[in-house]
Every structure is written in structure tokens, then in C-alpha cells.
Specification:
The longest helix has 91 residues. By secondary structure, the chain is mainly alpha-helical. It contains 1 helix and no strands.
Length: 93
């Protein structure tokens, strides 16, 4: 009878250790799942920031395009003036 009691206690202790290990594993998995959820929310914030940056970039490109058009127009006027002056000098000469 004593031998069986000793064995029962050994098995109970082994079961307790197993239960503790399982508890630790569950806690670790829970921690990792929470970390994944945090990563998902961080990723969502990054995506929102990218969308805002894309909007700013499009606005900047539109302004750059406007300035580019203005510079080409001024260069066209200057070139037209130089060509006209050249023809006037050619007519006189």
C-alpha cells in the first residue's frame, strides 16, 4: 500500500509540473498573441502615415508641375524675344 501511495504522489507531482509547464506555455502564447495584435495596430498606423505621405507627395508634384510650366513659359517668351531681336538685326543688316 505504501508503494502505491508513493507512486500516486510521484504521479501527482509529475502532473503538477506538467500543469505548470502548460500554464507557462499558455502565458507565453498569450503574450505573443498580444504582441502580434500590437504589431497589427502599428502596421495600420504605418499604412495611414504612408497614405498621408502619398497625398503630400502628389500635392508637391502638382506644385512642381505648375512651377515647371511657368519656367518653360518664361523661357519660351525669352527665346521668342531673342529670336525676334535676331530677325530685326538681320533685317537691318
Amino acid at each position: 500500500m505504501r508503494m502505491q501511495e508513493g507512486r500516486v504522489y510521484e504521479r501527482l507531482e509529475a502532473l503538477e509540473r506538467t500543469t505548470e509547464r502548460h500554464g507557462a506555455l499558455i502565458m507565453e502564447l498569450t503574450r505573443r498573441m498580444e504582441a502580434v495584435e500590437d504589431m497589427r495596430s502599428d502596421l495600420h498606423r504605418v499604412e495611414q502615415a504612408i497614405v498621408r505621405l502619398e497625398g503630400r507627395l502628389e500635392a508637391l508634384m502638382a506644385r512642381t508641375s505648375t512651377w515647371q510650366t511657368l519656367v518653360w513659359a518664361i523661357l519660351g517668351l525669352l527665346l521668342g524675344g531673342v529670336i525676334t531681336a535676331g530677325f530685326e538685326l538681320f533685317k537691318r543688316g
